[in-house]
Amino acid sequence: MALSVSCSSLSSPKIFPHFLSSRSFPLSLPQPISFLFLQTPLKKFHYHPPRALREWQEYEEAVKRKDLASALSFLISIDKNNSDNPVEGNGSLSTDSTRSRLGELGFVGGSVRDWEVLDTCLNADDMRLVGIAYEFLKDKGFLPSFGRFSSLVLEGTRNVTPTVLKSSTGLEASKFSPKKWGLSGSSSVVLAAFLGGLSYLLQQGIDVRPQLAIILGLAFTDSIFLGGTCLAQFSSYWPPYRRRILVHEAGHVLVAYLMGCPIRGVILDPIVAMQMGIQGQAGTQFWDDKMNNEMAEGQLSASTFDRYCMVLFAGIAAEALVYGEAEGGENDENLFRSICVLLQPPLSVAQMSNQARWSVLQSYNLLKWHRHAHRAAVKAMESGGSLSVVIRKIEEGMSSSG
């Protein structure tokens, strides 16, 4: 089954045509030194780092600059040089092998450095280049769990009623609905405490209404012109609130990773999110090449749409799994609706509700089966780890849970 989609507002990403450069990296050996030092004076010479070491230093500089094209080009060229220098009969690399020289310098394998290429993805303008980086690491054996459950969307019942959702998760369907501020448990307590404190101050003859009017005016301005970024910035310093954000975003990251969708980056700072044009207080950017190609052709397959919806609702599912209900995810729902109205014919309200319940149930089960990996991702983000660290922790969690 294929769904038509309106793609007038979509544009194909740019391609970097020259990132797949291939170069060799010979080592320059220092000037030979005579051992007849009693007869021949020792000549002074200046040490020049071997070219392989300089190239790795250039790679690290590319990582610092978040230059994905340069960093990935170097890794691909090193991998090509390694494959072009076969292993000799004695089991060692040939003398011309770059890997052999790197081994002498303590860079055998380069595993940590290979992982770091993921940290350059956030600044990449070409999302296809991000996908190539993940496929490169997967082919090298670093990402065995990437795309491991990409066919999961083909399993399970399609008709997920609120009763089915409750029987499968033990939670009412309303627990998976994002809460408006003032309606959730924590915000209602804060609101009640605020009103009680205001009433007490007024009874004591302390009139704070002018200051309150200024505060409310600033909050209104923030919500209209900045999307609530300033308030979100202050709220993010409250540990329970920040941890809930981490749980939510880790759900997006894990499900996207297991479904084979390359992750460009995770934004946890509301101001940075606003500067990057991300709606909400935080965001996870991922890429689905198949969905992009299908939408460019005006046809969206059901399996591709299912996979996208699973990643989209994974944050809500993660909150429900950890806390018993979801508070965030309003922007995820809005994005889901915006995709649904592009379909031809558009999904009805009943069809959208069923699709949302099916997607959140699939993501909930996937996260429940891999709790260790989800907790590892939350912990890595909580400690300020980069994307490469988060992905490594996910792989460690997946291997420990079998």
UniProtKB/TrEMBL annotation:
<protein>
    <submittedName>
        <fullName>Uncharacterized protein LOC110427574 isoform X1</fullName>
    </submittedName>
</protein>
<dbReference type="GO" id="GO:0004176">
    <property type="term" value="F:ATP-dependent peptidase activity"/>
</dbReference>
<dbReference type="GO" id="GO:0005524">
    <property type="term" value="F:ATP binding"/>
</dbReference>
<dbReference type="GO" id="GO:0004222">
    <property type="term" value="F:metalloendopeptidase activity"/>
</dbReference>
<dbReference type="GO" id="GO:0006508">
    <property type="term" value="P:proteolysis"/>
</dbReference>
<dbReference type="InterPro" id="IPR037219">
    <property type="entry name" value="Peptidase_M41-like"/>
</dbReference>
